[in-house]
Automatic annotation (TrEMBL):
Principal location: membrane
GO CC list: plasma membrane
Residues that span the membrane, as ranges: 12-29, 41-65, 71-90, 102-124, 166-185
Membrane topology: Multi-pass membrane protein
Key words of the record: Cell inner membrane, Cell membrane, Membrane, Transmembrane, Transmembrane helix
Subcellular location: Cell inner membrane
UniProt source species: Roseivivax sediminis
Family per similarity comment: Belongs to the YciB family.
Protein name, per record: Inner membrane-spanning protein YciB
Pfam families (alphabetical): IspA
InterPro entries, A to Z: YciB
Annotated function: Plays a role in cell envelope biogenesis, maintenance of cell envelope integrity and membrane homeostasis.
Amino acid sequence: MSNREISQGLKTALELGPVLAFFVAYLILKDRSFDIGGTAYDGFIVVTAGFVPVMVASTGLLWWLTGHLSRMQVVTVVLIVVFGGLSVWLNDERFFKMKPTLIYLIFGGVLAVGLLRGQSYLRYVMEGLVPLQDEGWMILTKRVTAFFFALALANEVVWRSMSTETWVYFKTFGLTAALFAFFMAQGGLFRRYGTGEE
């Protein structure tokens, strides 16, 4: 299936819509408990059970419309299915809270392997978005690798030491804001090592 372009608004809605839906549903159901098949499930688990198929459907629709998914998107949806499924099956929210940690450790680990081989794997993912000279790619990859490991540590600290509600806010807004701020802070590197292409 060949790659096809879709509007940025639709692409963003498909990528962020399920996360925002999870957040809103959690706020509505967080204090409720549901008896299903004789087992009590709190609101977080019920919302997680709804989030997993919604995320799979959204990712599948994105693939159907564009004919393409990045490796990061594939890994993310697989981990959501595995750890979301474990949380629901075992009625234990800890598995779903671990998911961001593993995602960031995997991405950071893959980039670190590339660096040890003298390569920027980040370049393969982002080259079409950010044209940089070779040295710029290596510097950016080192920074992103360290940033992913820092995010993994931050997620561990938050979910292990704070309330579920705090973690949901952190996951929905904190991590997104951190990613945005990180790449905004790389403006100097983009200017210095940019190739001059659009």
